[in-house]
Structure formats: structure tokens, C-alpha cells
Amino acid sequence: MSGSAAIPGTSPTGWICAKCGVLLVQRNTVFSYLGMTFSHMVMRCPICGSVFIPKELAEGKMAEVEQMMEDK
Description:
- By secondary structure, this protein is an alpha+beta fold.
- The protein has 2 helices and 5 strands; from the N terminus they run βββββαα.
- The longest helix is centred in the last third of the chain and has 11 residues, at 61-71.
């Protein structure tokens, strides 16, 4: 590697599932909250289905959807 430390859970080509040890892949994933559902493309393990939610998504779109649903 080029002098920088590796980020845990990643490989040079992407994120790795901590449980299965395989590369995560982009998949459309359905989320449920307070009886409502929405889908979004996220990184997901092709074996166990574990999902990686990036900080930007958690603090952005997901937070907005949560707030809208809680306000109803």
C-alpha cells in the first residue's frame, strides 16, 4: 500500500463484510420505518445480506424520511 494505513473493513476495491469476508455489492434495498417503506441503492453483502449505511445517507435522506414519518 502507498504509505497510508488500511481502513478496517475495506479492501483496495471496496467494503468487506465483517461476517462473511466478501466484498459488498451495490443492491437496491427496501427499508421499513413506522410501517412505511422506501428503497435505496446501498452496499450489501451478497451472502448474508448485511447492509452498509454510509454516514451521508443516515444523516441525510434517512433522517429526512424518519422526521416526515414521525411528524404524521
